[in-house]
Each structure stands twice: as C-alpha cells, then as structure tokens.
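Design review, sub-item: ligand-bound model
Attendees: FS, YL, KQ
YL presented the inputs for the magnesium ion complex:
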Amino acid sequence: MKTLDQLQFDNRFARLGDAFSTEVLPEPIAEPRLVVASPSAMALLDLDPAEAETQVFAELFSGHKLWSEAEPRAMVYSGHQFGAYNPRLGDGRGLLLGEVLNDAGEHWDLHLKGAGQTPYSRMGDGRAVLRSSIREFLASEYLHALGIPTSRALCVTGSSTPVYRESRETGAMVMRLAPSHVRFGHFEYFYYTRQHEQLEALGRHVMECHFPACLETEQPWAAFFREVLERNAAMIALWQAYGFCHGVMNTDNMSILGITFDYGPYAFLDDFDAKHICNHSDDTGRYSFSNQVPIAHWNLAALAQALTPFVEVEQLRETLNLFLPLYQAHYLDLMRRRLGFTSADEQDEALVQRLLQLMQGSAVDYSQFFRRLGEQAPEQALNKLREDFVDLAGFDAWAADYRARAARDGDDQQARRSRMHAVNPKFVLRNYLAQRAIEAAQQGDYSEVRQLHAVLSRPFDEQPGMETYAERPPEWGKHLEISCSS
Ligand code: AMP
Ligand code: MG
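KQ shared the predicted structure:
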C-alpha cells in the first residue's frame, strides 16, 4: 500500500511530443472537498484507501497540488460528432496528468476532467459541474462492477467555484483512470491533417503499449484494427445485453481499447424500450438504444478510413464485415446466461427476439425481469412476471417455450438461481437514484452518493437493508431529461 507521494510515473504519451499534446497546468477550483472516492480504483494505483481522507488528496485532485513527476498535457484529437466531421476537438477541459506505474507493472493514465481551459477549449470554460462529475463517477464504477470494460473513476472533488450552465452550478473535477485515453478521433486527426508520420507514430505507440501481439504479426496494422473491432463488438454486446445507453457515441468518445468512455447523458433502461433516446439533445435518435450496434459499426468504419495509409481498403472492409457476426455471437451468449441457459440452442435467438418484442410497449422493467426470472422456479417466476405484459397470449406462448427450453437444461432451482443472480444485477444505476444523490450533494450532503456508490459496487449481491435501492423508478424518475450540458 502506498501513500500519494509514493506514486511512480512513467509518462509515455507525453514523450511522443508536442504534435500529440500541449503542456497545460491545471487551474484549481476553490475550497476543494472530497465528494466520493472509489477504494477499488485506488487499489489500481496501490493506494491505501485511507489516503482519500487526507487534505492533500483533495488538493491533488482539484488542481491545487501536483506531483513533481506529473507532466500535465492536453491531447489533440478530432472526430465525427453526430455524423459530421469536426476537424479539431481535443482535451478542452481535461488534462492527462501522467501515467502511474503500479506494482503489477501496469500503466494507468491519470486524467483530471474539469481542470480548466486548454488550447482546445474552443468556446468552453474548461470546467465540469458537480452533477456531471458524479454521473461519470457512478457510471464508471458501476459498469466496472457489472463486468463491462470501462474507464475508471478514482474520485470526485467538489468546490465553491461557480460554473454557469442552464443555471449557476459549482465546479468539480473527476479523476479518471484508464490504460489509455487514445480515442478513434486521435487517428482521424492525424489522418485528415495528412500528418502520416505522426499517424504512424501514434499507431506504433498504441500497439507497443496495448497491443504488443499485433507487432508480432505480418501485418501489424491490420491485426490492430481487427483487435479494436473485436473489443468493440464485445463491449457493445454488453451494453445491449445490460440495457446501457451511452448517448453520445461520437468517434471522439470511442476508446481505442474498446472500453466504455466519456460518460454524458447515459442511461440504463428502466422499462424496456429499444428506441430509447437518453440524450435530450439527440433529436433524430442517432444514438438511440438499438442504434448503438450500427453506430459502433459506423464508428469503426470511420476509424478504418484513418488507417487506409497502412492497410488495403479491401482488407479493412473484410474486417469490418466481421463486426455484426461477432457482436451477435457475444450478445446471444450473454442473453442465454441472463435467461439461465447453460447450453446453446438454435432457437435461442428467436426466443430472445420474441421476449424483447413482448417487452416493447409493455411496462416491463428490463433489469428486474431477469432478476425475478431467476428468483423462483420458471413456472412461478413466469406467473408473476406475466402481469407486466400487455400481450398476454403472446407472453403465455413465449413462457411455454421458455419453460420447455429451461427444462432441457434440467437442473435444480438452487443452482439455476445462483447462476442467474451472478449475471443479473439486483441493483441498477438508474437515473433517478443518481439524481437523488446529486441533489443531496448539491446541498453539501455527500452521504447519499457515497452510499449509492457502495451499494452499486456489489450489484449482484442481496445486501439486506438496501432493498429500496433495487426498486423501480417512481413516475418522476422515469422521464428525467438529461441534457448534454456538463
Ligand atoms: P464531450 O461532449 O464532453 O465529449 O466533449 C466534446 C468536446 O468538447 C471535447 O473536445 C471536450 O473537451 C470539449 N468540451 C466539452 N465541454 C467543455 C467545456 N466546458 N470547456 C471546454 N471544452 C469542453
Ligand atoms: Mg468527449
């Protein structure tokens, strides 16, 4: 276990030089205070959890202090936003402070979001508000607890610094950790500015640090693209299986590592709705829940374009064609587990599709459905779940097929229950729960966000006494409008 001053840095990205990032010092926020910290994220840096309670912790993660070995830099990138190319984005309010080398030999980027203006701030103030910082923190740590690849969040620091959005709010910073902050948009930036030397250096850097096996192949760039595509197919399958809606799948928000990244107006589905749009500013539903699959494919095609100096177009196209089958195989595997099956059957895909069609337009809570399905033997569970469906005849036909299918796997209910509960969370990061915690935090009471984080860090466990956190949203909580402003 280490104290904060014992962290070791090895700033590999900074060493790539000024074509890739610009030196910028964090601009502190006033009267810093710890809002919430994640002990499991601290463990990635070998940090003693007690360090979170020290004054220096809040000072480091609010821009007041800096390690002497840190080299804070704003990264340059571009990207496709809502389908249109934006030639110059970059870290407009976040800084890569450096890379911590932990005892296991892993590098973890420390990225401080809300650290003030940079050359890439455009019209922005360089700040992040408490509301969005808490949302990013909760989502990062919850997706991780579910087993979905994601950037992590070490802590949120609050302040008295005023920040103006639709109304006056206060500034906060979130300390984000990831093995890399390179996005699809990094590659697009060097491709579209015709800096092919830098593009090549970036690719080499990413392969050396994160995909060393690619360098052993005859065509490292082709292998690299395939690896990114496979990771994305696996990640999107998890999003769809667990009802996670990202909301802003611009290529500058897509990690080259295939981890969930840059949380904005995200949501987990409450009642199932394939067409759900969680981003209030997404008028056309480009990033609706069911569109996430074709959009991920589209984003990979945008990345492929940036790799054309190194890989034949035909080969990129062939790899792109693997996306949907790979996604589908992962998704089906996850849904089989969620339904409690231990084997694969040809009929499973249709069974899943029929279930989702029945849920659509009914008032079926997506997450609770699976948890309750495992709670009791199929017959009793289905009898109870039936009440929430509109098409009862359709549901009865599905239920009969499900029972027959479950019987073929043929095991006792206790084994089925523990198997299903291990993949079907009891606790879900619902917007209304986050909202309640945010409102308390805005009044200076951080107990709710800490409690919620603690509950959500063990989403599959029963946690007696915490049942209220597992409830469906109240009516007000179903229709929260989460704006893009953050
Ligand atoms: P996002 O929608 O958060 O992914 O941000 C898109 C782009 O806008 C990125 O380049 C951000 O760095 C930048 N950006 C977002 N909010 C701000 C802000 N308040 N100040 C400066 N830049 C920002
Ligand atoms: Mg972003």
